[in-house]
Amino acid sequence: MATALPASAADAGAWTYRGPQECTYSKAAIATPTTERTAAFGTSMVQAWKNSPGGPCRQADQRPAGYLMATAELYKWNNLVHTWQLCRTSGRVTNNMASRQLEATVPLRTGSGSMPCGNGWYGTMAGGWQYSLSQRAWVGGKVWSGHHFFAPSTAPGTPPPPLQVDDSPVEGMISAPAQS
């Protein structure tokens, strides 16, 4: 159940949590259609899995409303100071109905069709978590998409290094979901 990516893209996914009962898979992507003139996006996807008799993290796990959370943060490389800088964010997105998967998306284009932080290298830091009743905490983490150059009439030059993943806990970001 992977998201199909357009012709020009960078993406990566990883198990961001493997616990005694549940597992969290997070995926980051940055993509654009071949023309680079229409709907380009940065996206974060989180999937909930659980352990089964067939092995760990093998069975999709339907999570109640409010038990999945995703963030998509769009970064742009600043070549003057040699660092990745936050350009836009989706904010926190939570599932509003029972689901095993959730996506958060941030558009790469402004209303006029230009890049929001100018031409250059862009990447997505995706965060994906699920609420674990057994751990009484949000479990998951962040994944870096890799980077893609957005400037149709300019040569890309040397690619920048990847953005380092910040594994700080999600505590305090959002309260535990209501339990029924």
List the helices and strands in order.
EEEEEEEEEE
Proportion of residues in extended strands: over 45%
Query: Would you tell me the overall average pLDDT?
Result: 81
Estimate the helix proportion, in percent. under 10%
Structural class: mainly beta
**What is the number of helical segments per DSSP (H or I, 4+ residues)?**
0
What is the alpha-carbon Rg in Å?
17 Å
Overall outline: elongated
What is the distance, rounded to the nearest whole angstrom, between the alpha carbons of the first and last residues?
29 Å
Explain how this protein is built:
The structure is a single chain. The protein is 0% helix and 52% strand. Strands 1, 2, 3, 4 and 8 form a five-stranded antiparallel beta sheet that branches. The two termini are 29 Å apart. With 180 residues, it is an all-beta fold. It is elongated and about 50 Å long.
Topology readout:
Elements: E1 8-18, E2 22-32, E3 41-52, E4 55-60, E5 68-78, E6 83-89, E7 93-94, E8 101-107, E9 120-132, E10 137-150
Antiparallel strand pairs: 1-2, 2-3, 3-4, 3-8, 5-6, 5-7, 5-9, 9-10
